[in-house]
Each structure stands twice: as C-alpha cells, then as structure tokens.
Design a protein that fits this description.
alpha/beta; globular; Methyltransferase, Cobalt-precorrin-4 Transmethylase, Domain 2; 34% helix; five-stranded parallel sheet; single chain
Length: 265
Amino acid sequence: MLTFIGLGLYDERSVTVEGREAIRAADRVFAEFYTSRLVGADVADLQAYHDVDIEVRPREGVERDPDAILDAAAGGDAAFLTAGDTMISTTHTDLRLRAEERGIDTRVIHGVTAQSAASSLTGLQNYRFGKATTLPFPYAHGGDDVPGSVIETIEANRERGLHTVVYLDIKVGTGPTGSDPDHEEYMTADVGAELLAEGWTDGLAVAVARAGSPDAVVAADRLSALADRDFGDPLHLLVIPGDLHHIEADALAGLADAPDELLDR
C-alpha cells in the first residue's frame, strides 16, 4: 500500500487526524519538499511529532528513480508526505500511476491547499477562481520578464471575470548556476508584484503570506504598491482578482485594506 498524505500548510500539527494515524502506522515514511514546504516545521519537528523516521527524497528521487518508494509500498505500508494537498503536483500523480501499474494499492489523504486558504483569507469566492499559474524566477525561464504563458492565463481568466492564483517560484536544490543541494530560494510577494507590475499591468492584486500560520498576512493594493512592502518569511502567493461581487469587494476592503478607488464599488 502506498498512501499519499497532505500535511497541510503550516506545521507538524496541520495534518488531519486521519493523516496522522496513517503516518504512524506506516512501515516506511517518505517525503518531498521541493514543490512546497511547511513554513512552521522542519523534518526533525515532523519526526518528533509523529514518532517516525522520514526519508526525504529529492526531485530526481521521486520523478526519475522512485523505486525505493515503490519497493517499500510493494512489500508493506509506505507513506508519501507533501506539504499542502498531496495531489496538487502532477509529479505525485505520476508516482501514483506507477504504483498502480505495479499492482500496488494506493490511497490519498488530503490536506488543506494554498488555493483554498487564499480564497478563505481574501474573501474571494472559491467558485470564481479560474486556472492558476506559476510565476518563475527570471533566470529559471531564460528571460528577464514575465513569461507570456503567465500573462495569457491571467488575461484569459479576467475575460471570464475570474480570479487568478499566481503561485510564486520555489527553487530547492537548484539555483541560477544549476544543481546545488544546499540552495533554497522562495520568491516573495513583493518581488512577484514588481515583476507583474512591470511586465503586465499595474492593477489590483492581493498578496497572501504564510497562509495557514498564526501570523498570515493578506494585503490588497496596486501591484506597484505591494512591490514596496515587506511581507516577511515565505511562503507567499499573489491573487489577481477578476470581476468582484459586492461582497468580495467588501471583503478585500475589510480583510485586506484594499483602497476604495481600486474596488469599483
């Protein structure tokens, strides 16, 4: 059995009760933190809380060479842990399909996602979000601007009146010079806002910092204004609103201090 377990957003206690029980019952526990990570706990915290040893796998150890995980699942109960919800990343779907092809039973225990938390924190209605996109570091896509695919996603959503979650790039184990096991880099909301203000348009946006933590920050303003603010420790994301229902506009004013002139009320 291979059980995929989402750990939630903040620390070792953010996992569901079902997830906690499955972790403790597993024969071997694997994890990856290159797609995202918990902002309030490290691997040692997780191991102590769940009383297990956790084998952290790099990207290549999940995508290219997952045999250790699959062999453990074929011979017993293996758990695979990720921050947020465990099936948000396509790499995890690929791992699940590989397990199924080998005749290994799989199950999924979900966790809170950054997108659902962004909707809850901002007051923007969940069913009014369109396709999400990721804003990469300029060096990661070989340019010095915003990739056209990011702009196309935002514009397509806005044409339909929908909001866009813009995930901000995370680089773990790779950097500007290539492979670097010790490299960790997290794009912050001010950097993302500056890139979008210069490469797209200087419109209304919402910065969400450390969703799921006790000190989450939500702020709405023009992208250029958000670019001048310090939102503290990661993880951060941006939301580009589409058409606003009057309750959503009230929420951005009341929960995120959005300037009235940007809300078109």
